[in-house]
Each structure stands twice: as C-alpha cells, then as structure tokens.
Design brief:
Elements: H1 14-18, E1 31-33, E2 36-38, E3 45-49, E4 56-61, H2 65-82, H3 87-103, H4 105-116, H5 120-140, E5 147-149, E6 156-164, E7 167-171, H6 179-191, E8 194-198, H7 204-217, E9 224-226, H8 234-243, E10 247-253, H9 256-266, E11 272-276, E12 281-285, H10 291-303, E13 313-319, H11 323-337, H12 356-371, E14 375-378, E15 395-398, E16 415-421, H13 424-431, E17 436-437, E18 439-443, H14 447-456, E19 461-464, E20 479-480, E21 483-484, H15 489-492, E22 497-505
Parallel strand pairs: 7-8, 7-10, 8-9, 10-11, 12-13, 12-18, 13-16, 15-16, 18-19
Antiparallel strand pairs: 1-2, 3-4, 5-6, 6-22, 11-21, 14-15, 17-20
Length: 506
C-alpha cells in the first residue's frame, strides 16, 4: 500500500465565507412561487449545512404537498400565456438569463461550494456548464420545426406541428445543483412549458439563486417555480408532482430505485416521463492504449466531484499485460494531482462527500472488497486532520474480483477498483453484466476495436480515449435501468413537446 499526502488542512468558517458573496440577493431562504418569495404554509424550515465543515449555513422554507399544489396551480395559470409567446420571445428571455448567470458566476460558485462541497474551480465550471443549456435551448426554441407530409390524396394537406406538453414537474439531485436544473428547465421553457422544481434538500440555495436571476431576466410569474423541502417532506412532495393531474410531464435525475417508484406513480395519469438514473460505468484500458492518456482521463473521470457523478468510472478493467504498469502510472497521478480539503481552501481540488450516509456506504463497500481479497493500493480512509467534514481519501483498489459488491453496485464516491481482463470478448461481457447502462469508456488505438466495442457496450453514451463526455450539444441519457429520455442536444427539447398531426381537407 502506498502512503500518500493528500490533505490541505485550512480552517474555514462557513458563515464568514457566505458573507463574501457580493450580491446578497442571490442568497434566498424562501420558496419561489408565482413570481414571489414565499414561506411554507406551515411556517416550517429545514437546515442546510456545509459538508466541508458540518456547520449550518442557513435555513430554508420546508414546503409540503399543499404548498406544491399551489405552485402547480400557479404554473398552470402561467402556461396559458407562456405557451402562446413566440419562440423568439422565449429565446430572448433565456438569453438574458444566460448572461446573468455568467455575470454572477463567482457568487453562484461560492454558494454551490458552501452547500455542496464541490471545490470552487469545479463549482465555477459547473455554473458555466449549466448556463450553456440555457443558451443552447434558447437558440433551439427557434428551431423546433414541424413537417409538411406529402399526402396520398390530392384533396388533403397533412401537417405535423410540435406543441408544449404543459406543466412539468422536475426533481433534481444534489451533485449538480445548478446544471441539473438548467438542463431540464432550459429545455422546458424553450418549448413553451412551465415548471415546478423540487431541488435536493442538501443543495437548495443554488436553485433559489437561479430564480432570482430568472426574475431579473424577465421570466414571467408562474413560469419557473422552485419548492425546496426537507428529507422528511420529500416523499409527499414527489408524490404530488407525479400524481397531480395538472402536471403533464415529470423529469427526474437520481437513483434507479427512486426512479422506478416515481415512474409507477406517474403511470396513474399517463404522464410523460424522463428518467436519468443510476450508472455503473465501465472504464476499459486495452493493451494497445496510450496508458498515460488513459491514466490522465481516469483521474478526471473518476474523482470529479469526489466520485459523486452518475457517469464517473465505477469499474476499471485493465488488460492483464499492462495492469501493473497502468496501476503505477495512475497512482502517481492521483497522489500528485489531488489535494483534499474544503472547496474554498487554496489548492484544493477534491472536496467532501455530501453526507455521512455517503461516507458509510464507501466504507462498507471498501470493507467488503478487502474481505473478499482486494488490496488497498492507495488511500483508503477518512483523513485524520479533516475530521470536521465528510472527507474520504481517493482510494485505489487492486486484485479486485467480480464477487465484490462494487462490481455490481454504483459506488458514488472516491473508490477506484481496478480489475484485470484477458480478452475483448471477456471484458465486453463483464462490462454489460450489470442491469444499468448510462455511460462507458474505453481506450484503444485499434480503429477496428474502436467501432466494435463502442457498438457492443450496452450504454447510452460512450467515451473513446476520453473520460469526459458531457456537453450541451450532445444527447445525455442511458439504457436499461439507467432510464429513458435524453437531455441536452437538439433531442432534448423534444422531450417537452407533443407532436400533433393535422389533416386538412381542401
């Protein structure tokens, strides 16, 4: 086992850092409903803490199902006028929203780091990435074309048009508190829909800051509503969004288990549903790969947001002939590049997990792997000098077998198990052995293998010789139990539109 010095031990006071946000109007603690800041009807709030210090940074309105119904009513009223605006009008509003997000990038990033733990540079990158969806869909609004279908009869004309589905219920996770909202809301508003958003209870401030900027951009009352709630109220709020008849579509990003439950609830009113669910991405290094490139890309792919991404590498398969060489190169890079600490500390690029529960899952998976014969090559523990925070070292495991839980369970943390394989056929079979299929990655310089493996992997997205695949211009989504529907790209706006066929008799 290699010893490593990862930690940056700089003391942070969360409230002092919150005070450094320049535009204090971006720090909102109430819900945003019908163009107004409102408290929960019960008067209840829930606390939000900084996962890097465990210090409370504020309290936010704890909305319940009754509050959500009022937000849905507001969105329903707003839909009657919003759907009638021209594509150009919607495009201009979204463009103004994009410009405001970019101009407030530093404040939004600091807020995100405080509530979610993401290192500041990474948080800033997410704000830019999230804004790109607002810009993209603002432009796509003007390109939501229909068709004229050649009629089989001279006496008729056949037209196909696209229309907004209606009010959309949106449920987003904590790991991308800005971009998961903009990727969905940007498409929905561009299509002419109105929305009610339930952000993760761990990270509500980023969502509420977007409301403040949307209002400044001219998004009309009731078009964009955000209803934060506690973990205790989450089931009832989710059920209201999936069963209320006024909601015509639900878009959810989160775990497969919760996605299945929400899909079943939405079936009662035959809502359209988009589900971006869990992943278990294989990362394959063939013998002919450029090992330095593969190692560089694995650091970026695996440890971004401390491993808390649905598309991060989860199972690393390395050909037996280059296994030891690759592990050594990779470990050197991890130790050299990553520094653990609070996301606002200088030099830190690896922050905390967001909850104690997430830490315990990592420790449980690690223990079961070691008990099954795996060996910790690097990392493997909570840093002693960072006790006040949900930190865990980037960890490399070797001599891992398919019998360990992390070979079939999503990890969502900084555990990096490295498996050996001996043939292309074998590794494809093992990569496809799990019930989910969101993303997959492989490294090879054999052009024939590139196409064979890319086509054979049972996933919705493939990275070839790269570990970074997400962009606003490409479709994002999975297959199998990773869900259905696509976000981003020109396909993303269609998820929020109905196709209507019109037959005109002359």
């Amino acid at each position: 086992m290699m010893a490593a010095q990862f930690t940056v031990n700089i003391q942070i006071k969360s409230l002092d850092e919150l005070a450094k946000i320049n535009d204090k109007s971006l720090i909102q603690s109430q819900a945003y409903v019908d163009g107004r800041w409102v408290s929960a009807s019960s008067g209840k709030t829930f606390d939000v803490a900084d996962p890097g210090t465990m210090q409370k940074i504020g309290s936010v309105a704890d909305m319940d199902a009754d509050d959500v119904r009022r937000a849905i009513d507001a969105a329903s009223r707003a839909f009657e006028s919003w759907k009638s605006t021209t594509a150009k009008e919607r495009s201009l509003i979204l463009r103004r929203w994009f410009d405001l997000i970019i101009s407030n990038k530093d404040d939004l990033a600091r807020l995100m780091t405080l509530e979610g733990g993401k290192p500041l540079a990474e948080a800033s990158g997410e704000v830019v990435y999230g804004a790109s969806f607002i810009e993209w869909f603002g432009e796509e609004a003007k390109r939501a074309y229909g068709d004229v279908v050649p009629s089989p009869l001279s006496s008729t004309r056949m037209v196909v048009m696209k229309q907004p589905v209606g009010v959309v219920g949106i449920i987003t996770p904590y790991n991308f508190p800005n971009a998961m909202i903009t990727r969905k809301v940007g498409a929905a508003l561009a299509a002419g829909c109105t929305v009610v958003v339930r952000p993760a209870h761990e990270t509500p401030y980023s969502a509420l800051a977007l409301c403040e900027l949307a209002e400044r951009a001219g998004v009309p009352r009731g078009v964009f509503n955000v209803v934060p709630c506690s973990a205790e109220n989450t089931p009832d709020v989710g059920k209201e969004l999936t069963t209320n008849e006024a909601i015509r579509k639900v878009s959810f990003t989160g775990s497969t288990a919760v996605g299945k439950m929400l899909t079943a609830q939405a079936a009662g009113t035959m809502k359209r549903v988009s589900m971006e669910l869990g992943g278990n991405a294989p990362f394959i290094v063939f013998a002919d790969a450029d090992l330095d490139v593969a190692a560089e890309q694995l650091v970026a792919c695996k440890f971004r947001n401390s491993g808390q991404t649905c598309v991060c590498a989860n199972r690393i398969y390395v050909h037996e002939s280059v296994y030891d060489d690759f592990v050594s190169r990779f470990a050197v890079l991890v130790e050299k590049r990553l520094r653990i600490g609070h996301g606002l500390s200088e030099g830190v690029n690896f922050g905390p997990l967001i909850t104690e529960r997430g830490l315990q899952k990592i420790e449980d998976q690690l223990k079961r792997a070691v008990d099954a014969g795996a060996r910790v090559f690097l990392g493997g523990k909570r840093p002693d000098i960072l006790a006040a925070g949900y930190f865990f070292e980037p960890t490399i495991l070797v001599d891992v077998t398919d019998e360990v839980p992390m070979s079939c369970e999503e990890t969502f943390g900084p555990l990096c198990p490295i498996f050996k394989f001996s043939s292309e056929e074998e590794v494809i079979r093992r990569a496809n052995s799990v019930p989910v299929g969101l993303a997959g990655y492989f490294f090879s310089r054999d052009i024939g293998r590139v196409f064979r493996v890319a086509e054979a992997l049972e996933v919705g997205m493939v990275g070839v010789n790269t570990g970074i695949i997400s962009t606003e211009v490409a479709p994002f989504g999975g297959v199998k139990e990773s869900g259905f529907g696509r976000e981003g790209s020109r396909y993303g706006i269609d998820e929020y539109m109905n196709i209507k066929y019109i037959n005109i008799s002359l």
